[in-house]
Specification:
The protein is mainly α. Helix content is about 80%, strand content about 0%. It is built from 6 helices and no strands. Helix 2 crosses helix 3 (about 30-40). The relative contact order is 0.09.
Length: about 110
């Protein structure tokens, strides 16, 4: 069960949660949760379901989760966010060009008037 505890710890860190945060969500004490993470306490099925729900995974996903898979998922998410950011940057540049064109047009109209 130590491997499962390490997976849970990794997921907790990825969410930016403390042991206290997770313990409160699971309605258990901090030491009880710490024992789960360190593998001292075996996890029963109902607790496993509770933990998987907390991390928005199925029990199977939690049991088969590996750091490499999460790294790939994170990489894919980062690429998607990067693409959105680049698209937004292009939109901003286009809007800046339009503002400059309008400013130049206003300035030209003032000079000729």
């Amino acid at each position: 069960m130590k491997t499962l505890g390490k997976k849970i710890r990794l997921l907790r860190h990825q969410k930016g949660w403390s042991q206290e945060d997770v313990a409160k969500r699971l309605d258990i004490s901090i030491p009880a949760f710490s024992k789960i993470e360190t593998g001292i306490t075996d996890i029963n099925l109902s607790r496993l379901e509770q933990i998987s729900t907390l991390f928005e995974m199925s029990v199977v996903q939690l049991l088969t989760f590996s750091e490499g898979e999460q790294d790939q998922k994170t990489q894919n998410e980062l690429e998607a966010v990067h693409k959105k950011l680049m698209d937004r940057e292009a939109e901003v540049i286009d809007l800046q060009k339009k503002v400059i064109e309008l400013f130049e047009e206003l300035r030209h109209n003032k000079v000729t008037a």
